[in-house]
Amino acid sequence: QVQxxxxxxxxxxxGGSLRLSCTASGGTLxxxxxxxxxxxxxxxxxxxxxxxxxxxxxFVPDSVKGRFTIxxxxxxxxxxxxxxxxxxxxTAVYHCAADSLVISGYDRxxxxxxxxxxxxQGTQVTVSS
Length: 129
Known about the structure:
Low-confidence stretches: none
Helix content: under 10%
Order of helices and strands: EEEEEEEEEEE
Strand content: over 45%
Structural class: mainly beta
Number of strands: 11
Number of helices: 0
Mean pLDDT: 95
Largest sheet: 7 strands, mixed
Protein backbone atom coordinates (compact mmCIF):
# COMPACT_ATOMS: atom_id res chain seq x y z
CA GLN A 1 0.00 0.00 0.00
CA VAL A 2 1.45 3.32 -1.03
CA GLN A 3 2.05 5.90 1.68
CA UNK A 4 2.12 9.57 0.75
CA UNK A 5 4.01 12.31 2.55
CA UNK A 6 3.62 16.00 1.80
CA UNK A 7 6.20 18.69 2.52
CA UNK A 8 6.94 22.29 1.67
CA UNK A 9 4.19 24.05 3.52
CA UNK A 10 4.74 27.08 5.70
CA UNK A 11 3.93 30.71 6.35
CA UNK A 12 4.14 33.12 3.42
CA UNK A 13 2.95 36.64 2.75
CA UNK A 14 0.21 37.34 0.24
CA GLY A 15 1.64 37.43 -3.26
CA GLY A 16 4.37 34.96 -2.38
CA SER A 17 5.04 31.45 -3.61
CA LEU A 18 5.47 27.97 -2.22
CA ARG A 19 6.19 24.62 -3.80
CA LEU A 20 4.69 21.58 -2.17
CA SER A 21 6.07 18.10 -2.70
CA CYS A 22 4.44 14.72 -2.34
CA THR A 23 6.64 11.66 -2.09
CA ALA A 24 5.70 8.03 -1.79
CA SER A 25 6.87 4.95 0.02
CA GLY A 26 5.63 1.41 -0.43
CA GLY A 27 4.72 2.06 -4.03
CA THR A 28 5.59 3.82 -7.26
CA LEU A 29 3.79 7.07 -7.97
CA UNK A 30 3.98 6.52 -11.72
CA UNK A 31 1.26 3.89 -11.22
CA UNK A 32 -1.21 6.54 -10.10
CA UNK A 33 -3.01 9.55 -11.39
CA UNK A 34 -2.43 12.12 -8.67
CA UNK A 35 -4.32 14.99 -7.13
CA UNK A 36 -3.95 17.79 -4.65
CA UNK A 37 -6.74 18.89 -2.33
CA UNK A 38 -6.93 21.43 0.44
CA UNK A 39 -9.03 21.81 3.53
CA UNK A 40 -9.45 25.09 5.34
CA UNK A 41 -10.58 25.10 8.94
CA UNK A 42 -14.29 24.49 9.17
CA UNK A 43 -14.65 23.80 5.45
CA UNK A 44 -14.91 20.74 3.23
CA UNK A 45 -11.91 19.34 1.41
CA UNK A 46 -11.54 21.12 -1.93
CA UNK A 47 -9.90 19.96 -5.16
CA UNK A 48 -7.01 22.09 -6.46
CA UNK A 49 -5.15 20.07 -9.10
CA UNK A 50 -4.77 16.70 -10.83
CA UNK A 51 -2.21 15.11 -13.13
CA UNK A 52 -2.14 11.91 -15.17
CA UNK A 53 0.38 9.14 -14.66
CA UNK A 54 2.70 10.31 -17.37
CA UNK A 55 2.29 13.97 -16.53
CA UNK A 56 1.03 14.71 -20.03
CA UNK A 57 -2.30 16.09 -18.86
CA UNK A 58 -3.25 18.30 -15.92
CA PHE A 59 -6.37 19.96 -14.61
CA VAL A 60 -6.90 22.80 -12.18
CA PRO A 61 -10.15 24.52 -11.22
CA ASP A 62 -10.86 28.15 -12.03
CA SER A 63 -10.23 29.15 -8.40
CA VAL A 64 -6.49 28.52 -8.80
CA LYS A 65 -6.01 28.61 -12.56
CA GLY A 66 -3.06 30.74 -13.56
CA ARG A 67 -1.63 30.58 -10.02
CA PHE A 68 -1.21 26.86 -9.22
CA THR A 69 0.68 24.34 -11.34
CA ILE A 70 0.86 20.61 -10.77
CA UNK A 71 3.77 18.57 -12.10
CA UNK A 72 5.53 15.33 -11.41
CA UNK A 73 8.93 13.69 -11.66
CA UNK A 74 8.35 9.96 -11.79
CA UNK A 75 12.07 9.28 -11.63
CA UNK A 76 12.06 10.96 -8.22
CA UNK A 77 8.72 9.42 -7.24
CA UNK A 78 7.46 12.91 -6.47
CA UNK A 79 4.51 15.12 -7.39
CA UNK A 80 4.68 18.89 -6.97
CA UNK A 81 2.26 21.75 -6.52
CA UNK A 82 3.73 25.12 -7.41
CA UNK A 83 1.66 27.88 -5.85
CA UNK A 84 2.21 31.47 -6.95
CA UNK A 85 0.45 34.75 -6.19
CA UNK A 86 -0.84 33.26 -2.97
CA UNK A 87 -3.85 34.80 -1.27
CA UNK A 88 -5.02 34.61 2.36
CA UNK A 89 -7.94 32.46 1.18
CA UNK A 90 -5.43 29.81 0.06
CA THR A 91 -4.69 29.11 3.72
CA ALA A 92 -5.43 25.45 4.36
CA VAL A 93 -3.96 22.03 4.95
CA TYR A 94 -2.89 20.66 1.58
CA HIS A 95 -3.14 16.93 0.88
CA CYS A 96 -1.90 14.87 -2.03
CA ALA A 97 -3.87 11.83 -3.11
CA ALA A 98 -3.44 8.86 -5.43
CA ASP A 99 -6.05 7.45 -7.81
CA SER A 100 -5.38 3.79 -8.50
CA LEU A 101 -7.95 3.31 -11.27
CA VAL A 102 -6.37 1.55 -14.25
CA ILE A 103 -8.26 1.33 -17.52
CA SER A 104 -6.35 0.70 -20.71
CA GLY A 105 -6.19 3.85 -22.80
CA TYR A 106 -7.85 6.03 -20.17
CA ASP A 107 -6.26 8.32 -17.61
CA ARG A 108 -8.71 9.85 -15.20
CA UNK A 109 -8.30 13.45 -14.07
CA UNK A 110 -10.75 13.58 -11.21
CA UNK A 111 -11.84 16.45 -9.00
CA UNK A 112 -13.80 14.10 -6.74
CA UNK A 113 -12.41 13.03 -3.39
CA UNK A 114 -14.24 9.75 -3.82
CA UNK A 115 -12.01 8.73 -6.73
CA UNK A 116 -8.78 8.83 -4.72
CA UNK A 117 -7.70 5.79 -2.75
CA UNK A 118 -4.64 6.96 -0.83
CA UNK A 119 -4.07 10.19 1.03
CA UNK A 120 -1.22 11.92 2.78
CA GLN A 121 -1.51 13.57 6.17
CA GLY A 122 -1.17 17.03 4.72
CA THR A 123 1.02 20.08 5.05
CA GLN A 124 -0.13 23.42 6.44
CA VAL A 125 -0.01 26.48 4.21
CA THR A 126 -0.70 29.83 5.84
CA VAL A 127 -0.87 33.02 3.80
CA SER A 128 -0.77 36.27 5.73
CA SER A 129 -2.28 39.50 4.43
